[in-house]
Amino acid sequence: MAEMEYIDAIRLAMKEEMEKDENVFVLGEDVGVKGGVFTTTKGLQDQFGEERVIDTPLAESAIAGVAIGAAMVGMKPIAEMQYSDFMLPATNQIISEAAKIRYRSNNDWSCPVVVRAPIGGGIFGGLYHSQCPESIFFGTPGLKIVAPFTAYDAKGLLKAAINDPDPVLFFENKKCYRMIKGDVPLDDYTVPIGKANVLREGTDITVIGYSMPLHFCLQAAEELEKEEGISAHILDLRSLQPLDRDAIIEAVRKTGKVLIVHEDNKTGGVGAEVSAIISEECLFDLDAPIKRLCGPDVPAMPISPPMEKFFMLSKDKVKQAMHELADY
Amino acid sequence: MNDQGTVHTPHEHEQLGLTNGQVIDMYKYMLLGRKFDERNLLLQRAGKINFHVSGIGQETAQAAAAFALDREKDYFLPYYRDYAFVMSVGMTPRELMLSAFAKAEDPNSGGRQMPGHFGSKRLRIVTGSSPVTTQVPHAVGVALSAKMRKQDIVSFVTFGEGSSNQGDFHEGANFAGVHKLPVIFMCENNQYAISVPLHKQISGKVSDRALGYGFPGIRVDGNDALAVYKAVKEARERAVRGEGPTLIEALMYRLSPHSTSDNDLAYRTKEEVEENWKKDGIVRFKQYLISCGIWDEEKDSDLQAQLALEIKEATESADNAPFPKPEDTLKHVYAGDSEEGVY
């Protein structure tokens, strides 16, 4: 066990899997000599050589498409999209190809590719270095989508993704890279894809979220407990696809009041589906209307500090929403 | 010297290293592709199958290219008109008919995809889709894997000239050029992208596009089987020597409408189509075989009858084969998913 940053945990997962299996390789823009623009792949080319840590031409559809081709013949590629904002040229490869390869070939071919992409704002990245594109891919059967919020989960989920027989989108939160530190086992472990995680047991309200805003939720819950005696139950979805329906239903039944939190904008976001599941499965367990706290429905996050702050979630915003729900 | 005491000048195919048996076999697959295609057009007209997308006029180049590859080892990423190609690398008329009838046993997709969407792991035909040219980066990925694992193989990918405008063509070709990967790009330039003619698709030459990516681009007459064979063979030799990719533009003409949903006379003339029937590569190759003294009309009639029978049997067998179970719609979204589907 060692304390490390979220970004180190991602790097360690790749390093361990590359040491274990020579079919695992990394490709993307600037991932080689530079070690990635965030240093996520730093040192990997020194250890594994430029054939296994490939600096690709600047062309996202090829990064995804070449990875998909290699995955179909038995390799385990990890394709890095420099920012999830730049991933859209690869959308056709991800949705039309990777997601459908097993299905369209009647289980003859498969595509065990991992696409890593940093999501989220709060770094003065403006419209095109801040987005959360989960909802673009969410609801595409054939894809798996994970979005860790701790260093432990980042390593465990990435290792699970690399060894998964199907395509996995690994949405890492760039605000978490350095801000989040945690204890990470130095041995081999995985965090199962498709399983949500209860972060905090509580009796008054249930908060369901994923990725970076969960840190705000945990801080807010501590304060509300101390200050107001409000007991919050917090569920980390961890995997957006498949969603852990049973865990969602169970978490709702704990308190009967639900707040769903994510940075991706509200309309058509993951929270909409979570709330639909709740309506279908446990509407009569609710004591209050389902509440969502999400990014606003604007195209993307502006760079100007007060505007960025307005867009971003925060401990205070989450705390207020939790308080309102508890008071309902 | 032959028994008349004259020197035997090797025929063109012999100079290329092909035996008489091989060129006759090549001709057989061209013709099989044609007959298969014609039968599917009839089956669709008769209401027996829902759809057919045709490759009539393109079989010569397809079969010739296949024969220039290593059909035991190489990987193939054909596009939707490549019936003669996939049969040349081992798919049977029955297997293709099962796809045309969307039956459970269809090895390409289990009756899930439209006909012409090929795939067979056994035959190393990589599964394909409908959004055009997505297969090009896949071929590059297969070639990258071959290079990383030091395998002595190539990937071979085809697409139309319209497709050569897609970003995936350019992104894939550039990637392959930079990394000197063993991949052969063959554009089947059939002059039309559905209704849009070549001059409205491309103002230069498809083959010249290779220049920008740092590897050879060559143009061949796609109705000349041996010219295509030679080009693909040389491209394969370059690839396995580690010299990187080659782009081959094979010029041909789509003699049939785009698909059974297309009326081609809305955008081209009957005269133009008829003029191109005179250049049919299959007829030309047959004449070549006859001129070499290794083929004749009687053998040709026998072959035609044999292929007709083969296709008839394939059609009947596929027609009588069971459909997939409706609930199998839920299967194979992910590995090991349950009967009920995933969620």
From TrEMBL, chain A:
Protein name according to UniProt = 2-oxoisovalerate dehydrogenase E1 component beta subunit
| PANTHER family named in the record | PYRUVATE DEHYDROGENASE E1 COMPONENT BETA SUBUNIT, PYRUVATE DEHYDROGENASE E1 COMPONENT SUBUNIT BETA
The record places domain Transketolase-like pyrimidine-binding at 4-179
Question: Which cofactors does this protein require?
Answer: thiamine diphosphate
One example of the protein's molecular function in GO is: branched-chain 2-oxo acid dehydrogenase activity
* EC numbers: 1.2.4.4
Which keywords does this Swiss-Prot/TrEMBL entry list?
Oxidoreductase, Thiamine pyrophosphate
Automatic annotation (TrEMBL), chain B:
Provide the catalytic activity annotation: N(6)-[(R)-lipoyl]-L-lysyl-[protein] + 3-methyl-2-oxobutanoate + H(+) = N(6)-[(R)-S(8)-2-methylpropanoyldihydrolipoyl]-L-lysyl-[protein] + CO2
Cofactor(s) needed, names only, are: thiamine diphosphate
Q: Which GO BP terms apply?
A: branched-chain amino acid catabolic process
Keywords on record: Oxidoreductase, Thiamine pyrophosphate
Q: What is its EC number?
A: 1.2.4.4
GO MF annotation terms: branched-chain 2-oxo acid dehydrogenase activity
What residue stretches are annotated with the Dehydrogenase E1 component domain? 27-327
What segment(s) does the record annotate as region Disordered? Answer: 315-343
Q: Could you tell me what this protein does?
A: The branched-chain alpha-keto dehydrogenase complex catalyzes the overall conversion of alpha-keto acids to acyl-CoA and CO(2). It contains multiple copies of three enzymatic components: branched-chain alpha-keto acid decarboxylase (E1), lipoamide acyltransferase (E2) and lipoamide dehydrogenase (E3).
Its name, as the record gives it, is 2-oxoisovalerate dehydrogenase subunit alpha
Source organism of the structure: Paenibacillus rhizosphaerae
